Amino acid sequence: MSRWIDFRMERQRVVTGPTKIAAVLDEAVLRRLVGGPSTMKKQLEHLGTLSRRPNVDIRVLPSELALHAGMDGAFTVFSLPPPYPAVAYIENLGGRLYMEAPKSERFVRAYDRLTEAALDVHASAELIAKIAEELS
């Protein structure tokens, strides 16, 4: 377990580099009080700080959306420089799986649909700040 925590902590360092990071978060995960109100407020404030970085794009799917392309679970898409195709990554109770083209293409399309359905970057940042403020 410690190895996975170390891996995830190392992944967070990517944010400070030139790599572009784009995420679409369901509003429900921003409202779920993991660790209690104080911890959640700090995490939301951290997201707000990250969202101001030029290489970070955070968008929120508002809870008013009944159905969306991410209903089957979380996934990550790694867009690589040409000639390499995108790679999709899923992690769940069944394990961890990387998928290359052509299987990764459906994840790329799903991500595009999620981005279209989500609030824009500025409205997302405002919603994240509002939810954090509600925890005060």
From TrEMBL:
InterPro entries: DUF5753 (IPR043917)
Pfam family, one: DUF5753
Domain DUF5753 intervals: 2-129
Top-level taxonomic group: Bacteria
Name under which the protein is recorded: DUF5753 domain-containing protein
